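Q: Given only this backbone (320 positions), what sequence would you predict?
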């Protein structure tokens, strides 16, 4: 599967989210997409899946069966879980019996008669995963697949990924939960500054390395905008602007009194090298549960941000 001189923006005069990107994904690839919020990760996933057409350039070699599980499952539909999955099976030319293996593997038996609108986030995410897997996908796109899942479903997901690539399929994942940590052979791709950079195969999440040949260098595009590429099947999709870049927030550090009356330069928090803090840097504190802190720090470092863990003042042992 190949992206050739691919560019995308949400409106004619809007800034480019991706610009003249080249990317090759051979059969059997597991690719993890990283990058800050708003960088274009979910947009890239929709372009790969075929649910969003590129503004310029082309996607070629897309497998005929695509499974796409969006980050936010659209529950505003008048179906129970069983009725929805049966209809999705019908869209793919399958019988309702196709849902049975996924009901068992993902632990969904108790959800079958529940209306979609009554599902919790984690349960809705299971339904989204199941519909993406009803027919064996040649391309599986997973946007935050581990978010909200229970232990049974989290344990099954890496095995499902392995099954897809073992048959020559391609899996592309955006995952802040780091659910594939330690999984061998993962190609890590960083989305940012309108392009895609390879972080390498099997590299630790906080190490940047170069994967020679993982990306083809972008070249100037002279092609006219391509017609919309219809997806292989019908998939529920999140809102078109879900991943649109937002203007950066402006934060002003509190000034300290100096003889000249000027604000003090920012001070790096403990554990962050002072050289990592520029003159206009802003320190942002994020409160997370103690058990998730290390994973959050690894992800921030993989995205290029200096980050450390420290206990919150006056917080109990369950938060830092």
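A: Predicted residues:
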């Amino acid at each position: 599967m190949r992206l050739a001189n691919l560019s995308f923006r949400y409106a004619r005069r809007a800034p480019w989210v991706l610009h003249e990107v080249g990317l090759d994904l051979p059969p059997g690839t597991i690719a993890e997409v990283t990058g800050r919020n708003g960088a274009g990760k979910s947009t890239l996933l929709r372009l790969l899946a075929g649910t969003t057409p590129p503004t310029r350039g082309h996607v070629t070699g897309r497998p005929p069966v695509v499974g796409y599980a969006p980050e936010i499952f659209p529950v505003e539909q008048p179906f129970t879980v069983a009725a929805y999955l049966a209809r999705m099976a019908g869209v793919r030319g399958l019988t309702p019996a196709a849902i049975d293996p996924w009901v068992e593997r993902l632990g969904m038996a108790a959800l079958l008669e529940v209306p979609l609108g009554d599902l919790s986030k984690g349960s809705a995410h299971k339904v989204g995963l199941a519909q993406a897997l009803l027919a064996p996908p040649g391309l599986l796109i997973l946007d935050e697949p581990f978010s909200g899942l229970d232990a049974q479903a989290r344990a099954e997901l890496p095995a499902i990924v392995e099954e897809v690539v073992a048959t020559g399929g391609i899996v592309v994942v955006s995952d802040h939960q780091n659910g594939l940590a330690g999984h061998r052979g993962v190609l890590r791709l960083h989305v940012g500054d309108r392009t895609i950079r390879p972080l390498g195969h099997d590299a630790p999440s906080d190490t940047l390395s170069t994967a020679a040949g993982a990306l083809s260098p972008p070249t100037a595009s002279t092609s006219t905008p391509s017609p919309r590429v219809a997806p292989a099947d019908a998939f529920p999709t999140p809102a078109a602007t879900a991943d649109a870049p937002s203007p950066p927030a402006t934060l002003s550090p509190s000034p300290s009194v100096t003889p000249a009356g000027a604000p003090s330069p920012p001070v790096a928090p403990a554990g962050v090298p002072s050289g990592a803090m520029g003159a206009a840097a802003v320190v942002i504190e994020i409160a997370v549960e103690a058990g998730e802190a290390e994973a959050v720090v690894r992800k921030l470092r993989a995205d290029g941000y200096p980050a450390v863990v420290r206990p919150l003042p006056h917080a109990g042992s369950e938060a830092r």
